[in-house]
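This week, look over our next protein:
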Amino acid sequence: MRYLALLCLMLTACASPDRAFWGSDPVPVRIDGRDYAVYVRRDTAPPRVQVIRLGYAHRAEHPAIVAAMGQAAEQGSGCALMAGSARGDSGVMTARLSC
């Protein structure tokens, strides 16, 4: 049981982007005391972004986190999200950008 708890703790401490974002450097963004890693691919048409929440969140915090992830994507990329393109949950979100 201890090893399972240690494994879970280690996995929540790291952020690895999807293969489509390999090679992109993470842009750290902090919103409302929560940290996010933002990965941007500008070499695609349209550009794309992936946001990963860092750390644990209680279930009640998830709706606010989803909204903050959109803000993190825009802050980290300097671009606006394309309406209706965001996919994911309060852990990982991907979207297209309008730059």
About this structure: The chain is about 25% helix and 30% strand. Helices lie at 2-12, 62-77. The radius of gyration is 14 Å. The chain has one domain: 15-98.
